[in-house]
Amino acid sequence: MQKEPLATGQSVFDIELSENEVLYDLLLPETGSPSRMTTYHNAIRNLPLPPALWNAFQRACNKGDSSQKLAAIIKDDPVLSAAILRTANAPGLGVRVEITDVARAVSHLGMSLVRTIVSRHSFSAGLAKSDKVYDIQKLWKHGMAVSALAEIIADFIPNCDAEEASTLGLFHDIGKMSLNLFPEFIQPAKLETHKGHLQYEYDRFSCTHIDLGVLLAKHWQLPEKIIQGISYHHHPAYAEANAIPNDIRAEVFAVYLADLLAIHMGFDTGDSGMVLPHESFARMLQGTTLMEIMDSKKVSDEMKRIENIEF
Question: Can you spell out the DSSP letters for 138-195?
């Protein structure tokens, strides 16, 4: 069936908002103050590094290793193995016979969900348990949703590496986890829709989650493209497409759209405000619209799976 053309003035990014959602007028970029960033950097570099297991898991993923090989890595950590099995057998994930084998659990969950569980297990110990700024559980669930959605959206963006988009989706907001480390620096601030949440974070901490996300990603020794992607992941809100380096532009765009859909579908981080992408990105989304992606069965099924997962 031939698709109906978009009505005049209609954008591929148009989205139907619910009552509790709001479109910000814009998103003002901010750069952290040098003195405050020095303080944050000194604190973050004292956090523990990720365990060797995570690095081994990432190398195996990059090589496209089988579920059996990934499971062999996971089995080196009994706590992680238990978490994988517990998640695979969660109610609502469609398991009729209990899964007791880690390799089968990995295959059942899929790479996006397994990567989230392994990453959460590997990195959470070094982050503050305080939820004074952002709820850690909501952040991991949001990252899980964005990771899965970015992998799906990558199919509609030419030259987009689905694996890299999925990984960036998982880690794009790690700076929000970092903000929980510094409750003593919280200053009173008001979220104003004509300025957006980056300005709100800057007013509270003299930096944004982008600044801290880059610091944390470098400390954790994440791949350079992921670090670069974190630094640009809000650019589609206020900059033209060519402002993002060509080698990560498609993946950043996929993650930005995934972020919008995750928020719209209830997987937010405590803020339901959104900014639609700059129209220069419209040519990069081919053969579909944002609402068509959201309404697809593939997205619906994946979000239901994630909704049923308990940490």
Answer: HHHHHHHHHHHHHHHHGGGSTT--HHHHHHHHHHTTHHHHHHTT-GGG-------TTT
Q: What pLDDT digit, counting tens, does each position of 15-26 carry? A: 888 777 888 877
Distances (CA, A) of 31 to 37, 61, 110: 10, 34, 37
DSSP designation for 273:
E
Number of other residues whose CB lies within 10 A of the CB of residue 219: 18
Taking CA 172 as the corner, what is the angle to CA 89 and CA 90, rounded to the nearest 5 degrees? 5
pLDDT in tens, 183-227: 889 999 988 888 888 999 999 999 999 999 999 999 998 999 999
- Bridge partners (DSSP) of residue 22 are 273
CA–CA separation, 4 and 19 (whole Å): 28
State the DSSP H helix or E strand holding residue 22, giving kind and residue range, or none if neither. Answer: strand 22-23
Domains and CATH numbers, the chain: 1-47+130-311 (1.10.3210), 49-126 (no CATH)
Three-class SS of residue 274? strand
